[in-house]
Structure formats: C-alpha cells, structure tokens
Amino acid sequence: MKVSFDATGSVVIITGGAQGIGAALAAAVVGCGGTAVVFDLVAGDLSGVEYVEVDVADRGAVLEAVDGVIERHGRIDGLVAGAAVQPRAAVLDMASEQWTRTLQVNLDGVVWVCQAVVPHMVSARSGSVVVFTSGMAATGFPGAAAYASSKAALGAFARTLAAEVAEHRVRVNVIAPGVIDTEQFRSANIGADLEHWRDTTGIGDAEDVVGPLLFLLSDAAAMTGSQLTRERVFARLETFKES
C-alpha cells in the first residue's frame, strides 16, 4: 500500500501485533521510518520489527517490557492497544475461567499498558494512544458476551483517560475496525458463512485499517476522546469499485 505518513524517529508499541491488523500496522510503521515494538505472546517474522514476548494480562510483565523499550529507545510516541482474545460461548454455558481470561486480556491488558506507557508521554507532553473496540460493543453478538463486554468497557475507559491527560497534550482515541479477515476472526467464526458476510456486512483486510491507525497516531489527528468506526464500509467500497 502507499504510505503517506512520516514516522521517522517515532517509537510505537503495538500490543497483539504478531499477526492480523497489528502486524500490518507494524510493517507500515517501519515503512514510514519508525520503530515498531510488538508486545505479544509469540514473535512474528516481519523484518525490522522488534518483538517482545509478554502477556498483557500480567501487569508486572507489562511494566518490565515498557521499561525495556524506554531503556533501548528513550521514548514512546505511540501506543496501539490491540491485544485481545475472542472466545465463543453462550452466556448460560460460559465457564468462569473463559469470562475472566477474556476481561484480563482485553480490558485489564489495556489498562496495564496505558499505566506503563502514558506517564512517559505525559512527561514528554506528546503522544498518541489508540484503543481497539468493536461494533459488538454496541450491538452484541451471540456467543460473544465476554468479548463484547470487554470492548464496551474499553470505550468508557479510553474516553476517561483522554479527559485526564488532555492537558498534557496526550491524545487517546478509539477505533472500531469492523469485520476484518484475520486469523482471529476465522478461528472465532469456524463454520460461518463468510461469503454471506461479504455480501451483507462486508469483510475487510488488515491493511484496510492501517491508514486510519496511522492517521490517529500522527499529528494530523488533532482530536482526542473520539472513535473511528468502519462498520459496514467495506460492502460500500466494493460496490464503488465495481461501478
């Protein structure tokens, strides 16, 4: 894809960036001249991307990982909090461990990494945080109560954090990417009629979200406490391309 944002000298932490949208963003940050540091349980294989093995649900591990980034690079300019799990279970059948783990990763993990990163941005009086939520936070989805609940809570968390750090010129925004064809999406929807989804809601690719993320990370996004939503945009784009 054509990259139109300059990230030269910038250091961006991406949680959950070993695959999917996070991996596409990490590649774009490097392509823009920046340093992409991925926090994930596994390492990816993208050239030029720095990988740190960390479970974001472990607050101590997150603090240690962020300290390491500061020691190596001296700064953190951007944080994209995308690490998440997406199990499927009906509310009446859900195990307590499944509920707890989902909130620990999807919600607590964002809180811990923000607590570790944002103070450095406050000191620098500069920085951008982007938190991933989901259309499920507003609509719900059968079998996704834990995931949808965690994402709904993140919206409130991000808006509150935005209000608290605005005076320090640190921006916090939210993105709801819509339905994206990633490894996680496919594993969470085994047996689903993906062609029906493509014809109705529309399914995008990970690269489709890179542009909005680069925008939110850049100084061009002079906004905070806002949400970019890409629900149902892909079907319209496909129609436009065909016309």
What do you see in this structure?
This protein has 243 residues and is of the alpha/beta class. It has nine helices and seven strands. The chain has helices at 20-31, 59-73, 96-124, 136-139, 145-165, 183-188, 194-199, 210-217, 233-242, and strands spanning 11-15, 35-40, 50-53, 78-81, 127-132, 170-176, 227-229. Strands 3-2-1-4-5-6-7 form a seven-stranded parallel β-sheet, sandwiched between helices. α2 packs parallel to α3. The longest helix has 29 residues, at 96-124. Pfam families: adh_short. Keywords: NAD, Oxidoreductase. It comes from Kribbella koreensis. This is Ketoreductase domain-containing protein.
Give the topology string: H per helix, E per strand. Answer: EHEEHEHEHHEHHHEH
Q: Measured on Cα atoms, how large is the radius of gyration?
A: 17 Å
Structural class: alpha/beta
Q: Helicity level, as a percent range?
A: 40-55%
Q: How many alpha or pi helices?
A: 9
Q: Uncertain segments of ≥5 residues (pLDDT<50)?
A: 232-243
Largest sheet: 7 strands, parallel
Distance between the termini: 22 Å
Number of strands: 7
**What proportion of the residues form beta strands (DSSP E)?**
5-15%
Strand order of the largest sheet: 3-2-1-4-5-6-7
Mean pLDDT, nearest integer? 86
The coarse silhouette is globular
